[in-house]
Amino acid sequence: MKELLDEALRQGAFKAAFLQPEQIMLSADFRAICASNQCGSFGRCWMCPPSIGPIDALMAEVRRYPHSLLYQTVSAIEDSFDIEGMFAAGNAHAQMSQRLHAHAKVLLKAPFLHLTCGGCHLCAVCAKRANEPCRHPDHALPSLEGYGVDVYRTAASAGLSYVNGQNTVTYFGMILFGECV
Ligand code: SF4
User: Fold this and answer.
1) Can you spell out the DSSP letters for 39-65?
2) What spacing in Å lies between the alpha carbon of 119 and ligand 1's midpoint?
3) How many A from CA of 159 to the centre of ligand 1?
4) How many structural domains compose the chain?
5) Which domain holds residue 145?
6) pTM, 2 dp
7) Does ligand 1 lie within 6 Å of residue 45's CB atom?
8) What does the alpha-carbon distance between residue 16 and residue 30 come to, in Å, rounded to a whole number?
């Protein structure tokens, strides 16, 4: 299992930690937060609610995995109003998740679940907006919040800071799995 954590750090994670299942904090309340659509992706991205399915089923899926790795990336932004910087940091995090995903496919024996920051970020405009099929179904990753993960409380339970300094933005990802090779 340590190889997966080491790979996360090699691929650009600031920190990463393994979690016991009970350290993953879940809440169905996140579906209402997504539905308020403050990010603009609700119903406009195949990897966001409601397209990913009912939250109770997704939280049950999270609970099925005995092991998980939580990782975070930290990026510099100009200030707390730097929306472009935050979006660029989200893109960088999504790319890091993709690199780690490729290694996880080799390291993990059985199918695994990989959740990352919201909004997918793989295409400039999600195909969902034109009601067309996902262009990269083998690579697109859903978000932690979409599956009901309370990232703030889960990070705290893992000893990872949710905020990592002035003029930085922190994003999280999690790989849930059963066994390693
Ligand atoms: S890969 Fe592209 S089409 Fe598929 S969910 Fe992500 S952004 Fe949308």
Assistant:
1) SS-TTT-TTSTTTT--HHHHHHHHHT-
2) 9
3) 32
4) 1
5) 2-177
6) 0.94
7) yes
8) 23
